[in-house]
Amino acid sequence: MSALENFEKMLAAGRDNALLRYSLGNEYLKAERYAEACTQFEAALAFDPKYSAAWKLLGRARMDLGQFAEAAEAYRQGIEVAEARGDVQAAKEMAVFRKRALKQLGEG
């Protein structure tokens, strides 16, 4: 059984939480199933809006979908969360990714 199948099985069994949704989103991202990845990252963030890693991968999934404005917004929120938590490295990474999203929009 693949990790994706295992996580889907856990979710179907009712073991729903931020980490499971994040892990499931990450597996969808690896499988290039970007819309499903976004749904899972959004669900993870509904559980924990301060989950900076989920913001980061939500931005990436939206970038891969060509949703650059939405990606920039995810990164903006992720930067705020990461800075508030003292996660300087995550904030720096998301700032770089946000610039790329804004550049795609002609704003960078």
UniProtKB/TrEMBL annotation:
<dbReference type="InterPro" id="IPR019734">
    <property type="entry name" value="TPR_rpt"/>
</dbReference>
<protein>
    <submittedName>
        <fullName>Tetratricopeptide repeat protein</fullName>
    </submittedName>
</protein>
<feature type="repeat" description="TPR">
    <location>
        <begin position="52"/>
        <end position="85"/>
    </location>
</feature>
<dbReference type="InterPro" id="IPR011990">
    <property type="entry name" value="TPR-like_helical_dom_sf"/>
</dbReference>
<keyword id="KW-0802">TPR repeat</keyword>
<feature type="repeat" description="TPR">
    <location>
        <begin position="18"/>
        <end position="51"/>
    </location>
</feature>
<dbReference type="Pfam" id="PF13432">
    <property type="entry name" value="TPR_16"/>
</dbReference>
